[in-house]
Design brief:
Elements (H helix, E strand, L loop, with lengths): L1 H4 L5 E3 L2 E4 L11 E4 L4 E4 L5 E2 L1 H9 L3 H11 L21 H20 L4 H9 L4 H7 L2 E3 L5 H8 L4 H6 L3 E3 L5 E3 L4 E7 L5 E8 L7 E3 L15 H4 L8 E5 L2 H9 L5 E3 L7 H8 L4 E6 L3 H14 L5 E6 L6 H18 L2 E2 H14 L4 H18 L7 H15 L3 H15 L15 H18 L19 H14 L7 H5 L5 H15 L4 H28 L13 H5 L3 H23 L13 E2 L2 E2 L1
Parallel strand pairs: 12-13, 12-14, 14-15
Antiparallel strand pairs: 1-2, 2-3, 3-4, 4-5, 6-9, 7-8, 9-10, 10-11, 15-16, 17-18
Length: 616
Amino acid sequence: MDVISAHLTLKRAGRNFKGLCPFHQEKTPSFNVLPERQLFKCFGCGVGGDVFKFIQLREGLSFSEARALLAERAGISLELRESRGPTGEGDAITKADLERVNRWAADWFRAQFAGAAGQSARNYAASRGISEESVERFGLGYAPNSWESLVRAARQQSIPPALLLAAGLTKGREDGSQYDAYRDRLIFPIRDAMNRVIGFGGRTLGDDPAKYINSPQSILFDKSRCLYGLDVAKSHFSDNRRAVVVEGYLDCLLAHQHGFDTTVATLGTALTEHHVQMLQRYVDGVTVVFDTDSAGMRAAEASLFVFAGAQLDVRLAQVREGKDPAELLQIQGKEGFNETLTSAVSALEFKWRQVVRQFDADAPGPARRRAVEEFLSLLARSGEFGSYDPIQRGFALNQVGKLLGLTSEEVNRQLRIVARRQRAPEVPATSQPTFVGAPDATGRALKDLLEVFINAPAYYHDAADVFHPDGFTDPDLRQIAEVVIEMAGREGGFSPAELIGRFESVELAGRITDLQMAGEHRGNYAKTVEGAVARLRLIEQQRQLGEQVSRLREPAAMSADGSQTRAESKSPSASQEQAARAVQETAKRIRHFAARKHLTAPSLRGVGSVGPQGTT
């Protein structure tokens, strides 16, 4: 309660508290905090979870990072060993170790930038129009043009060589010695949403053919999951719910310097789904600014499909003056960059213009077809609740029809074909006979039990013999059920918050919160469990009956030449008659069981009767 109330204004509503949701725009409060359960739930956008999940969403962190942040604020140490980090060969290097050595390196690079050795770096920064305020704000540094400057400085601080190597600050030689990984480079410290230094980018100031280099991937740093400038931009997202995405360090830094405070960069890599997930936690819209060269166009096009299934308003803006945003900002300043952002078009409009260009250029038939199919593929990938609203989608499909001379029904049919191609292969249907509706009935009964167990774990033991996670067709529910079974078996059970803590996924936290709240409103847990168990047992009996019927319907025995024997074709065998009586007895037991439990049994008329072809 204290953590959440520090981020937004809450008002009491009965036993709970309500406020405006920080994760989507709303005028009527739909964000609820349940102090007794230590949970929150927004009935507007659907997010929910415990305090850790709140921090994950608010700060864009993983569960372990959120836990570390809350522990730090509470003055609790999570370190299991001394804070000096690894000192011997057998010690494991942790994220905390890497973060500490990166913090030291950032300070050291910063000191080199400010010292005599950093004159060339300061000259370069000035030539690119970087102000002293921006240098300080982003912590720019300098790696001297020397092979072992950092190595010697680290040795003086007793920093283990293995730690420098793991952080990517040094590289190893064949003789076991090390040398500096960054030499004669302007250094850009890369910070995460918690303001921790997780890696570095270096821009050469000499003639090194590798213009930019980044820290190697590690347990702390993964550039496909990092957005440069997020640590600075996140405090501005509450005022401006649209992010500007650029490619490079200088693009991002100069954009901030000119007042575009919600700008982030992708570290020179393509946009990934992880980037999109991070952005969704903070903003409602994204403007992707791309370069005028062919690589920039390809990157922009690739971003369309990454954003297609996201709940974000995506627009694309092309830099026309200069080859990148940094040069545009140097040449035309704030006004020029603002004009570029204003000229941004929707993702669908951007893609549609590409299609039209293919037709205007008299492209060959296959190229035209491919362009149209890619456009339809983008629409299909967005899904029913993707980033394009029904009006946008309808207008886009109408444009396709006009261009190709097709009716709306023909275009929609083609869209469905494309969507089916993209869909993941479905699980093949089983050849075994089943009772229609049984999977749905099983899922409903299991979900009823899961809702109860999350609120009252002790009831699990009353249903352990029928509560099988494999019965869920929803993989999220199956995953939650497996952990519930594990935690319910321990003494004292568990709380909903403890269950949520077992998962990194914010989406799963929301599902658990929904299940908890649904179960809380059931009231009589014992009656719910009894009814669900009875339904599951009835379903199992139905399944067994179905198997018996299936066996009796197997083809009659064949003679050596492949023809059915006359005796078997005319009348049922004694074994078939015996099996039929067994099926009739099973059906009778199912009816009695269903009547006793006030359940509805399936229609069993004719089951067990024997005719010339076997059981009917």
